[in-house]
Design a protein that fits this description.
The chain is mostly beta strands. It has 2 domains: about 100 residues, Immunoglobulin-like; about 675 residues, TonB-dependent receptor, beta-barrel domain (Maltoporin, Chain A). The chain is built from 4 helices and 50 strands. The strands form 10 sheets. The chain has a 22-stranded antiparallel beta barrel. Strands 10-17-18-13-14 form a 5-stranded mixed sheet, with no helix packed on it. Strands 2, 5, 8 and 9 form a 4-stranded mixed sheet that branches. The longest helix has 18 residues. The radius of gyration is 28 Å and the shape is globular.
Length: about 800
């Protein structure tokens, strides 16, 4: 195994080593950067109607066969030699644009692209660069319009659920938004919203994600061969970009579904200079249920559930060289119940209050400054803030007031809070050295504040009172990192992305450091087939303690400490790819192997509410491995689009303190995963979607006996006992296989100033009773133990309405 994690007693050697390594690598790259080109053409690629930047547009010279790809902010730069050039710009779903200019000096050329017509015969969705020509492997761009056209659970278009349909990505439980990429856990996914990490992406107990599709412009998933600019996670990067807002005209979108309603507005604040975009979504389950609850309880009870999202962005252009972006997101789920009863008996006033609150949510913001230093060097400085919080509270308050004013109180209240808060600063620089070299480098720093779990307990009885706080202490840590990478060509057949990521983590007087090499290689075998390979090592300094399976966010984010080491992994992959341009098809096949260390699990019987002053005594660390093969056949041309994805995979874990030290399968070790995703455009007015998924059943641990007793890991001052299960092999049983068919149709109609879409969908069309969880029960009459299955979703039809204006 390759182990890149090293520990130092102080932080200075770690940081000096990281900086020195980066600059030495840059000096080594300098001689490779030829300066044979004479003049540079640079600029931005935008949507001509809205002024929004287009990411990943291709700007190239078809004669010299050289070009560049616009970066995350729509900027491109290409250096050419000669007297003149015919420059062409292409982007997914837009009409190509071309311009001819003389190469007598460095020039600035901005491309404003227009959307293609939507005649059925000419519908075409193509990548700016076909899959065979890219050096990056294990990376997929997911068009937002494709996501919107797929069948939706309860009418809610969901980004994460669409990502789960890709090979190498497994979902968690039925209907959940968990992502398990190439054998990793949900904490090993770096999910970025406009560059800010999102720690919890679930609404409605995991059934919907927090990302409103109407507010998103671009989505990219990286499963392996990670570019050096990404760090801090082991398994994947999901990079999500928000819309910037229309610079020219005011527009809006509104939708009403079974679960929630939503509204998105965008337009210019100062035409051509400043724009905004805001999007909001809220459920109305509590609003609809409240009158029924009040009526059936004589007005004594209030309760319900709701979630909401609010996301926005402000974009200001000072000049062609300077732009400022402010992005923000706020969202929360809340379950609440409160019953209050009052009565007077023989002059004594009695009151009783029972309450329960459960809530979780994110607050996120980023402030980014884009600066163009010259026509080859582009910079982005970002300040970020991320805050995730989970809290639960219960109370029982009984009071009686005698006629003489004497009050008696019996009260029990328990509250629990956990969360993580980040403040960060990051600098990213893109250097377009020449058509054969794109060098990226930069650095970042993040200050973490962890609240692993604090409980507040209040008990009041006549003559007895307790008001105390117990649980883990707040932990503060600092994460630092630098990186450099070069995407370059060697001749006509080879293209590489090579880089280095160096990071350090400072916590509780201890320092960890990590040097992580990354490399991806593409070689053309002939004019059609490409062979790709990659190697990446990663380090992760945060852990997620997972203890429940139903989507509740009671999982705890905790840091590496002096006693708990960071996670680390390395992954190698090899594959082939080919584009069948005449048919609009792309094919890729990849094999991978990943080894992980420093994984964290609760010890047997421990959980997040265990009454212990230090969570570190409740967990154990171990290793994991994942390997498999992924196949993807994707069509991007014509009336019918979509993909077929298949994954053959193995995922195992080994902990000294679990399963008697023996290797056991990960909960989401699924041997086979198959997904079929199709969309078909019948006309301008009608399109339809279909998804069918199949997966091997989840691995589960089932008890063979249970008894009441005191667990050695749980020190309860009140003397409570609990049920203790006796098991044999961890995850030694399998649920039944999972499969499901979803169908959907969208009916569009355009009016003079607005358009509308009715969407009809059926989730689980043949009502497959898929297992959600298993439990032991006794057979009525005989008392024999029987194993029962709980299924969550039968066939669910839904309808939603969407309007654009």
């Amino acid at each position: 195994m390759l182990d890149h994690l090293i520990s130092f007693p102080k932080s200075k050697p770690t940081l000096l080593t990281a900086w020195a390594t980066v600059w030495i690598l840059m000096l080594m790259l300098m001689p490779l950067l030829g300066w044979t080109q004479k003049h540079t053409v640079s600029g931005y690629v935008t949507d001509a109607a809205s002024g929004e930047k287009l990411i990943g547009a291709r700007v190239f010279d078809p004669v010299r066969k050289v070009g560049a790809i616009s970066n995350s902010y729509g900027f491109y730069s290409v250096t050419l030699e000669g007297d003149s050039v015919d420059l062409v710009c292409q982007y997914i779903g837009y009409q190509p644009a071309a311009t001819k200019l003389g190469l007598v000096k460095d020039s600035t050329v901005h491309f404003g692209l227009t959307l293609e017509g939507i005649e059925v015969e000419t519908v075409e969705i193509t990548d700016a660069v076909d899959i065979s020509s890219q050096s990056q492997m294990s990376s997929i761009d997911v068009p937002i319009e494709t996501i919107k056209s797929l069948p939706a659970l309860m009418g809610e278009v969901d980004l994460i659920r669409a990502i789960q349909l890709l090979p190498g990505v497994k979902s968690g439980n039925e209907g959940s938004t968990g992502m398990y990429v190439r054998g990793g856990g949900p904490d090993q996914n770096l999910i970025l919203l406009d560059g800010v990490p999102v720690y919890n992406v679930s609404h409605l107990f995991g059934f919907f994600s927090v990302f409103p599709a109407d507010a998103i412009s671009n989505v990219n998933l990286v499963k392996g061969g990670f570019p050096a600019r990404y760090g801090g996670r082991l398994s994947s990067v999901l990079d999500i970009s928000l819309k910037e807002g229309n610079m020219q005209e005011f527009h809006g979108e509104a939708g009403i579904g079974v679960v929630s309603s939503k509204l998105t507005l965008e337009g210019p604040i100062q035409k051509g200079k400043t724009s905004f975009m805001v999007s909001a979504r809220r459920t109305y389950i509590d609003v609809l249920a409240q009158p029924l609850i009040m009526a059936t309880t004589d007005g004594t009870t209030r309760g319900g559930y709701y979630f909401y999202d609010f996301v926005g962005k402000v974009n200001h252009r000072f000049s062609d060289r300077d732009r400022l972006f402010l992005s923000f997101y706020g969202g929360r789920d809340k379950v609440y119940f409160k019953e209050k009863r009052e009565e007077i008996v023989q002059g004594t006033d009695y009151s009783s209050t029972t309450g329960f609150d459960l809530g979780w949510g994110n607050k996120i913001s980023s402030l980014r400054w884009n600066h163009l230093f010259n026509n080859k060097l582009f910079g982005n400085l970002t300040a970020t803030y991320s805050d995730f919080n989970f809290g639960i509270g219960v109370e029982q308050d009984d009071r009686s007031t005698e006629p003489n004013g004497t009050t008696s109180i019996n009260r029990f209240a328990l509250g629990y809070d956990s969360g993580i808060r980040d403040l960060g600063l990051r600098l990213d620089l893109d250097w377009f050295a020449n058509p054969n070299h794109l060098v990226r480098f930069g650095g970042y720093g993040t200050h973490h504040t962890f609240t692993p779990g604090v409980s507040n307990m209040e008990i009041i009885f006549p003559g007895f009172e307790i008001d105390t706080t117990f649980g883990a202490q707040i932990v503060r840590a600092t994460e630092l990192g630098v990186y450099v990478e070069d995407d370059f060509k060697i001749g006509s057949r080879h293209k590489l992305n090579a880089g280095l990521h160096a990071s350090a983590f400072l916590v509780e007087g201890k320092s960890y450091g990590s040097i992580q090499p990354r490399i991806s290689h593409r070689m053309f075998l002939d004019e059609k087939w490409a062979l790709k390979s990659s190697f990446a090592s990663m380090a992760q300094y945060v852990h997620l303690l997972t203890n429940v399976n139903v989507g509740l966010p009671t999982d705890l984010w905790v840091p590496a400490t002096a006693n708990i080491r960071p996670q680390q992994a390395w992954q190698g992959a090899i594959g082939v790819s080919r584009s069948f341009q005449d048919l609009g098809l792309e094919f890729s096949a990849e094999g991978y192997y990943k080894y992980m260390t420093g994984l964290v699990e609760y010890k047997e019987g421990a959980a997040f509410l265990s009454d212990n002053s230090d969570w570190q005594t409740l967990v154990t660390q171990g290793n994991g491995q994942a390997y498999g093969m992924e196949l993807l056949l994707q069509r991007k041309k014509g009336k019918t689009n979509g993909w077929i994805g298949y994954t053959l995979a193995w995922t195992n874990r080994q902990f000294e303190d679990l399963n008697m030290g023996r290797v056991f399968p990960f909960k989401y070790d699924r041997r086979h995963d198959l997904s079929v995703v199709l969309t078909h455009t019948f006309s301008k007015k009608v399109d339809a979607g279909l998804t069918w998924v199949y997966g091997t059943g989840n691995a589960v641990t089932l008890p063979i006996a249970s008894y009441l007793g005191m667990h050695p890991l749980i020190n309860s001052p009140l003397g409570f006992s609990q049920q203790i299960d006796q098991v044999t092999d961890r995850n030694g049983f399998r649920m039944r296989a999972y499969h499901r068919l979803d169908l959907g149709v969208n009916l569009h109609k355009e009016f003079a100033k607005w358009s509308r879409t009715w969407s009809f969908s059926i989730y689980n069309a043949y009502s497959r009773q898929n297992p959600f969880f298993l439990y032991w029960d006794t057979e009525f009459g005989t008392g024999k133990p029987i194993l029962k299955q709980v299924s969550l979703f039968p066939i669910i039809p839904s309808v939603s309405f969407h309007a654009k204006f």
